Every structure is written in structure tokens, then in C-alpha cells.
Amino acid sequence: MDTDKKEGSGDAKVEVKMDAEAAKAKEKRRTRKDSSNSQNSRHSESGNGNGVSNGAVKRAGKIGDRKSRTIYGRGLPKKGGGGGKGTWGRPGEELLTDGVMDNKDPNYDSEEQDNDIMYKPVTPVWSEDEIIKTLQPIIKEYFEHGQQDEVHESVEGLNVSDRKYMVIVVLITLAMEKKNEFRELASLLLKRLVAPLSSKNDSGENASKIIYYANAEDLSHAFLDLCDSLPELVLDTPDAAKVLGRFLARAISEKIIEEKILSRIIEAASLNDDEYGKSCAKEARLLLSIPHYNLSHIWGVGGGNQPMILLKKKINLLLKEYLSSGDSEEAIRCITDLDVPHFNHEVVYEAIIMLIELSNERSANMMVHLFKRLADTVVVTADQLVHGFKRVYGEISDLSIDVPKAYPQLQNFVKKCHDLQIIDAKLMMSVPTKSRKRFVSEGDHGRFSGGKYGDRFFDLA
Asked: How far is CA 135 from the centre of its chain?
């Protein structure tokens, strides 16, 4: 009995102890909850009544989150994302300076602390080599399209400072190495880039409305520089002094440069003992002294811009001169100067027609020799030769009306050209031949006799 009582009293003590601990833990939870509720109610009174302070609701943040986890903040990062240990700072903060630099900074300069620094963009001026390297593609492209305003816009963007004369130097240098048609384009571009001396241009418009790239002083500087470079230019262009003199005379006639530039060139050439400069000035003075000479046509009209009638006249004239002199090299040079490679079939056509009309062995032999030289030098291509021969083939029937021996003359000439391998066998075999007239005595008398048809005039038809 006593033992049972003792065990019962022990269990009662354990239960009492557990109840006491549970009550104590419950009291702690109640105290913590009351404390939280009282804090929330206190802040809700100062806020909007919903437990929100400054528009932010209290929430549990993640570990390491740099945003404010208190109910006082707006939910934004601390210090704009630039606060805390090991952070890089706010974006763009490296550009902001407080005026004081750390003396341990490698970029620290004590002199900069006393002066206000102004930063300005600086574009370095190009050297002469850079200017020439940039200008050459622009000028070469101009020789292809001929658009003056496009060149003006291109050179306006170049950082050449006070060396605008370099544009003119490169333009004339490249034009001197080419044919007259490109020199004409260069002279037209000079007139567009350089402001005229008078207040009004040739068309009567006010010059102030047109924006020019350079002036007469830049043009004078360019011509003086080109005269000094003539000993080097003659290596590529043997008549460089004469060509430059023509450019100079054209510029003076168009009133974009004063005539006194000639005296300056002669004086500079005399000091340097330069014969090329003197020759250039003399050529310009000679052209300017010719009365009623239109210097705007100093380069002539060449290439495909010539009228077809004029081209035919020039071709006919050079062929007649060749038959008279027998100089095939001069004839080839004249054909090359025409600068119409797409129209060289006209040379072949006119030559064959001319020898058929002359109908003598000497003319045929000379034309064969000329064709051989043209084929060997490829001045006239094989396609142009074939085209010229086929044109004659198509008109030989009409030509035979005026020249009875046209067919045998053509066949003889074609055979000679084939023997010298000027044309191929296919072109020789396609040469037209005159059809032979058939007579009644060749076997048709029996079938087409007058007695059969009852026409006594049938045989006379």
C-alpha cells in the first residue's frame, strides 16, 4: 500500500512539473504575441491603420537580401544598391567625383586638384598621306558617275584643316594620267569646287547662293605645288607640262583664278631652274593669246559622247590616210584615240567597203595588213571583227549593183584574211557568193518549150 502511494505521488509530481513547464511556455508565447500586437497597433496608429508604415508592408526577407526588411523603408535597395561591404556602388557612380582624389590612387595628380579641367573633343588633323589615300577612291568614283555635288559632299567631311588645295592636287594628278574625257570631267569639277572671282557666275545667279569648297588662293597653291611636282609627273605622263598648262588656261578662262598666277609660276621656275614650270606657263599663255578660241572645248569631245556621224567621218578619214601613207601604227593610234571599243566594228565595215569600191590589189593587201595588226594588238577584238564582216555580208547584194566585181573582191579578201589567221574557217565558209543564172539550154528546154505552153515568147523571158 505504501509503495503504491509513493508511486502515485511520484507520478503526480511529474505531471505537475510538466504542467508547469507547459504553462510557462504558453505564457512566453502569449507574451511575445502580445508584444507584437502592441507594436503593430502602435505603428498602425501612426500609419494608415493596416499595419503599413510609409506604404510598405512588413515581410520576412531572404537571407543576404540587401533590401530593407524593416517596416520603415519603401522596399528599395539600401543606398540605391551602392551600400554595404563588397559592393561596386551605384551604376554611374564612378563618373561622379567629389573633387578630392585619394593620394594613394595611381592616377592621383596634385596639380589637378587646384585647376578646373575642361574636356573637349579633339579630332586630329590628317596627314598628307591619309588625305591622298582617302581622296583617290572619291575622285576615281567621280570619273565613273560624274556627279559633282556628291564629290562636294564627300570632301566637305574630310578633316584637312587649311590644306584644301590637296583635293585639287589629287584631282588634277589623277586626271593627267587619263584621257581627255576624264580631264574634261576634272575641269568641270574644278569650276564647281572653286568660288569664282566675280560676285556672279556665268549663269547670272548670285554666287552667294552656291556653297563652294575652296577659293582662288587654294587653287593657286595647288597649281604652284603641281608645277614643283612636274619632274615626277612626267615619268607617268610625258606631256605633263603641256596638260597642266591646259588646265591652267581653262581655269583662267573660267575666271576662277587670276592670270597673274602665270608670273608667279615663271618666277618660281626661274629660281629653281625648272624648265617644266616655264613650259607649263608658256603653254597657258599661248592658248589664252589665240583670238576667238573657245577654251571650254580645250579637251574636245571624245569617247562615246561623240555623234555617230562624226565618228563615221573620223573613221573614213583615218582609213584614207592609211591607204595614202601606209603607216599602220599611226592608224592604230588614231583608232585607239577614238576611244569607242564598242564601235570598232565600224572600222572593219568601212575598210572592206572601201577596198571593194577601189577594186585594186594594192588596197586589198594594205587592208589585210592593217587587219592583221589590229587582231594581233587586240585593238579590235575578235567579236568586233566578226560583226564587221557579217555586216558586209548582209549588204554585198546591194553593193554589187554599183560595183559589179563586189562578190569576187570580197571572196578574195576573205580568203587572204583566213590565210593569215585573222578570221576562222566558219566565217570564211559563210561568205556569200553570187548565184549563177541558169539558161534554157541546160536541160530545161524539153519541159519548158514554147510548143507545150503555146507561148512563143516563153524562151525570151
From this structure: 11
